[in-house]
Amino acid sequence: MKAIQPPTFPVVAIEGERDALLAPYRHAVSAMPGAIVMPGDESALASPAVRGLQQGLVDAWDAAFATVALRWAQTGCNTVLDPFYAALLPERALAATLELASGKALEGDKDRARVAAPLAAFAEWEWFKLRGDKSRLAHAYEILLADHRYRQSHEKRRNGLFAGTPGPYRLNATGRFMLGGRIVPSLALGSSWVDACGMQAMAGRMLADMARVLGHRDQASLLDWDLRDLAARMNLVMWNEDDGWYYDLDEHGAPLPMRTLAGIFAVLGGVAPRNRADAMLAKLGDPTRFERAHPLSTVAASEGDYRKRDGTPVGVVRSEFNVAAWECYFAVGRASKGQQQCESHLRRVAKVLADSGELYLAYDPDRDMPAPIPDGNSGAEAPLAWAAAIQETLSVLLGIRPHGHRGELELCLHLDEKHRVEGLPFQTGIVNFEVSATPMSGGRRSVEMQCDIPIKLRLRRGESSLLHELNPGFHTLQA
To answer: I want to staple 166 with a disulfide (CB 3.0 to 4.6 A). Which of 20, 162, 171, 206 is the partner?
Structure first.
């Protein structure tokens, strides 16, 4: 078996004070190799995995976000979803948690509790857009399609909507269905969840995109039909016109009026029409709702349960939920606002890192300090926190958006300072680029680009964009 090298990530620099925003990224890329568990004495898994928040376990939620981050590595392990593909449950569904010692799925009280949230399709699609490996996509597609069909058969309610199980969906991160600091299973399991529906829609949409790339047009049409049906049901009963948000429903179909970041999966899943998506994103930027001093709070500040009696926040800043929220901004062409929020987030994270020497998964929305979470203290030095910092920096702050299925690399320019990225993988090659500082006169900026494969480079600032077709070599462009 060929030895797998530790992952090495692109070198990034910003000229001036805002280089401090890269401290979380640099900390994360130096720590991330230590989070990879190779097959051997410690792990009975067939392929590399990423450590979870609990000792001796690896988690599908963490693996999905870690794969999104590891795709940026030049070398080494790029995906940590493979152990979950190799250890499918008997019903052909992805397990939520695997044990390192046995390599098998962690047993739960019920079969559904062992099934992962549908995030793997998101991770695989993002991996393909950067790496362009169609053979891997074909392998993952068949597994993920079976997983999707299992959920259609076993997690769909009579009303055509979905619910999952609390752990795999990180239900406690958004404070829903909780009493006395604990989730009430009878309430949660009897309800229809907006995030479970949105994630199912997102998985279906991305599986349809995969099917089209792989030439499975009939399957793509069926997946599109499922998506339209689910979107119609969500838009009919989960949307509240007065509040402009998507809500969970109780067992009787009545809305559960707690506004949380769970609703953003309706945007990421392609469920929300454009006018509703715009209204929701406006609330993400509202300081009385989600954009607190440290964006974004998982529970709106207007909620009565925003903080407990002892002052502990119920709504916290969860880095992986921020990643999902900022992907919504890019999906609807509002990238600059998401980049501004990401800059504010990274500035707060960098300050806590400087004070404590650690990255955390959860932060207080109003103070520069970590926040406790039920599923892992505050997530200190969690691999999931490192993965989120990598994705936030490269994909959001620097606006590097690969569209490998059409051979296009997009740069959404946000920083005014001169900045550079060296060793960025794209498709089968490596890209280096440097963006000049914004001229005082307001003129155009120059972008120096070096690539070793032909690429289409799209430079975007706000709603304006320029597309350049580049051959291998060194190029100086005007943005």
So the answer is: 171
What is the residue whose two structure tokens read 């809500």?
Answer: 247
Of 31, 24, 8, which Cα lies nearest the Cα of 383?
31
**Per-residue pLDDT tens for 333-370?**
899 999 999 999 999 999 999 999 999 999 999 999 99
**Contact between residue 324 and residue 173 where contact means Cβ atoms under 8 Å apart:** no
Looking only at the bridges linking them, the beta strands covering 317-318 and 255-256 are: unpaired
Architecture of domain 20-403: Alpha/alpha barrel (1.50)
Residue spans of the domains in the chain: they are 20-403, 404-479
Phi, psi of 83 (to 5 degrees): -60, -30
Q: How far apart are CA 245 and CA 277, in angstroms?
A: 9
Phi–psi pair at 181, nearest 5 degrees: 85, 5
Residue 18 has pLDDT above 50, yes or no: yes
Q: Is 314 helix (H, G, I), strand (E, B) or coil?
A: coil
